[in-house]
Amino acid sequence: MADEQKPSAPQAAAPKPAPPPGPPAPPPPKNPGMVTLTIDGKEAVVKPGTLVIEAARQVGVDVPHYCYHKRLTVAANCRMCLVEMSNSPGGKLQPACQATVAEGVAVKTETPKVKDQQRAVLEFLLLNHPVDCPICDQAGECKLQDYYMSYDQQASRLDMPKLVKSKRLPLGPTVTLDNERCILCTRCVRFMREVAKAPQLGVARRGSRSYITTFPGQPLDSKYSGNVVDICPVGALTSTDFRFQGRVWFLSSARSICTGCSRGCNVHLDYMRDSTYRLRPRECEAVNQEWMCDQGRTTFKPWNTDRVLQARVGRGEAKAARRAEAVAQAAARLQESAAKGQLAALFSPGCSLEDLLAACAVAKGLGLTEVYVGGRPDGWQDEFLKRADENPNRRGLELAAAAAGLAVRSIAELAKAIADGKAKALWAVGSKVPSPTAAAVFARLETFVCQASSQDDVARAATVLLPQAPVPETDGTFVNFAGRAQRFERAYPPRGESRPGWALCAELGQALGQATAWTSAREVFQALGRGLALGDFTWDLPPASRARALSPAPAGTVDGRLPGYRESADKVAADIRAKVTG
Amino acid sequence: MPYKVIEDSPADFRERLFLPEVIRGVGIIAKQFWRNFFLQRDPNPDILLRKTPTVTIQYPEEKQPYPPGYRGLHRLVPREDGKPRCVACYMCATVCPAQCIYIEADEVEGDPIEKYPKRFVIDELRCVVCGFCVEACPKDAIRMDTGEHAPPTYTREGQLLDEKALLRGAPVSYQYDPWLRRGATAVDPKKLEEMRQRAKPFPAGATDELSQTPGFSVRQLAAEAKGRGA
Ligand code: SF4
Ligand code: SF4
Ligand code: SF4
Ligand code: SF4
Ligand code: FES
Hints:
The structure holds two protein chains of two kinds. By secondary structure, chain A is α/β, with parallel strands linked by helices. Chain A contains 18 helices and 23 strands. An eight-stranded mixed beta sheet of chain A has the order 15-14-21-20-19-16-17-18. A five-stranded mixed beta sheet of chain A has the order 2-1-5-3-4, with helices on both faces. In chain A, strands 6-7-10 form a three-stranded antiparallel beta sheet. By secondary structure, chain B is of the alpha+beta class. Chain B contains eight helices and five strands. Chains A and B meet through helix 18 of A and helix 3, strand 2 and strand 3 of B.
């Protein structure tokens, strides 16, 4: 064949030498403007320049990979993704995460050669791996475990001691590193450099003795460091906060929205029974891609501890009251002071749109013309995700108030109205206030009806305290700073006596003789929120109208993970716990 | 056919009379009664080894030891330094069909195994004694080789055995145990060396025989219990 292609001497003597033979001209594209190739016999039509691994994903072929991450640069260092491509020189295997598509190429991902390679790569990755899955938080969502079961399944042939590296190494406030488990895919290094724009991680030394490390004296303290835990395909980087808190296969996941700031990052809310265990970013191209900040990850803590679980009437020697009683009391007080024109309403932009729609409707029914805006004070901000406004729903509050024809006033004006004696009674939906002195002011009011979920100073100042359920315990909507309405779904039923904000408002409204008999957040939105300018927002999340029985249906197939299948396991545990500690 | 069918021969005239047979039965009972009443009884709880022909076991003063492999009351296997072998991996809690194992994990310092069970509670009333937990455990940390059954209690809560009640019996070390291979700063070096000496290779296959700790016999346990006057 080589002989045939060799240009012969007589031809060279010809006046016009033939062009040197190159590779055959590429065939004309089957689909103009696109590249057509076959992957495992399936035809894929993709844009030129697409990576083979992405083209494969489009036709439903999953190429195993570790180092490749679609939002990071290509490193092609793990070699797990090698596939056969008909255009590769010498029939060498090509990394699907680095090779781009070419017209007419046949890609094969399941040939014996590829399988051998996958097994070999896994054997190498596992060579010095400690396989201490029993104490590894990644177990259950570990790519090493998954791929071992799918592609390897052979015993270790290493008959000498494994390499010993550092374990349990706190890299910074949020992340703990186990260097033995690291497969050196450098995803974390690339994330810190390219996405977090804080190159705080690097690889030190060489060969099998390489390890991930921070620079001397500089901890991994970026505000986005938590994301490396999510992208680490193995259990090398684990969350210090979630460490040993639970096994991931017991957790279910609900689609939720982070309440940390007005960006409204989409998150997976991982829960078991009636506790939230962690928040993980959920993919949303328009808002947070698939990242979130470390502060947002901790926002679930108040949902688990120090909750207001019972209604209360009276300050100081206050006694827990049944919710119906407290609602009746609150309604009577509100009616009384509203009639005298001494009532003010303080709504928190931390509550859901449905809570605020319902609250505005009830406020309107009480004859109010303005509402004051509470909420958490401003915090830090940067160019990436975090916004200074640490309330998830300020836009929602403005929309809801405008729809009800209520003017929006700041908390400073409320303080002034109270000081002037114009406002003698207050109704707060949500207990967060931006100023630390507000609680002391409220504590002097003769009537302070407060719907709160956490036992904070403001809640303690209430004369009637109504237990309000936080985000995981209700369905709802947040409108982020850009006006994008985003739904969050209920993970578990409200704890104790608490009820969602809209339900408390509905109870209050009914006690006041208003027609507010809503039975779900959806109903509230249908009744009050249809006219809001929310773009093409539809309330129902796909799949629409998930039926909820007494116990919540396990959510969480959204990211392909099986739902926690042991809803009752923890119930038993709770029974046992109650008996043992009680 | 793997078994033999025995057909009763038809009753003869004497049997059909009934009374002689009744008298014979009463005679057997009376013989046993007087023999047990007057003759010395061998109290060996292992009836197979008794010198006298009496087989009655005076339960609960005497207890028949269970055969090896019997799934008795759980125990958490200790290491020689008194800590549990358990690393709180939740495998047993995951596999348990009765969902009766409750674990709370926590972090421990100075040991290559970073995790230990802060709480480990088994609800013995809920347990169906299937032994899956023993099979599932990757650390040979939970066993049912105590040769006892759950002791009777007056309350249901009494059947909740926690890590203090469960952690007992003969300690076990394997050569592959990380605290032996890598050392543990929380363990006294001399003790660690002693543990290394006593460590045994990990059994290649798990059988009932192997899941019994050598030198840990149910018969011996029963004898000890007897010695204590239990
Ligand atoms: S990373 Fe963790 S879960 Fe994955 S194989 Fe290693 S020890 Fe097991
Ligand atoms: S720590 Fe995780 S993400 Fe970083 S290189 Fe190692 S395996 Fe990859
Ligand atoms: S023996 Fe079976 S039912 Fe009992 S604790 Fe173990 S796994 Fe659960
Ligand atoms: S399976 Fe074994 S090591 Fe794991 S939690 Fe249960 S007893 Fe402990
Ligand atoms: S995923 Fe392609 S080499 Fe790592």
